[in-house]
Amino acid sequence: MDVLLSIKPKYVEEIIRGNKKYEFRKIIFKEDATRVFIYSSSPVKRIVGVFFIGEITRDTPQNLWAEFRDLSGIDEQEFFNYFTGKDEGYAIEIDDLKILDYPIDPKEHLSDFTPPQSFCYAPNYLTDFINLDY
After folding, report:
1. pTM confidence score
2. Structural domains of the chain in order of their starting residue, each with its CATH number
3. 31: three-class secondary structure by DSSP
4. CA distances (Å), 2 to each of 11, 85, 102, 115, in order?
């Protein structure tokens, strides 16, 4: 199962640069998800890449920061602001990243496309218009 994950452009850039090896989330998708399409949110509004899900770690924000801060691609204040009021969170390992040569505007292919707030399960036909060499 594929997931479409909305990520702010500044964090997408950190992923591309190799500084961000983990994506952090307050909620997580089903365990059978294996691949993530990266949707770079406004103002980019494009699917820019895909990665396979490595390990997912569930823990307190404090423990996630202690373990993954050097691979987070985010500063401490932004990290803890994101997790404000949460007792637990998730660190999703970014594995086998592929950046698309030509970012895709989903609205050009799906007239009713609405970007997910956090994530959504990607429709099977998403790969029909994304050239992947996997």
Report:
1. 0.92
2. 2-127 (2.30.130.30)
3. coil
4. 20, 29, 20, 15
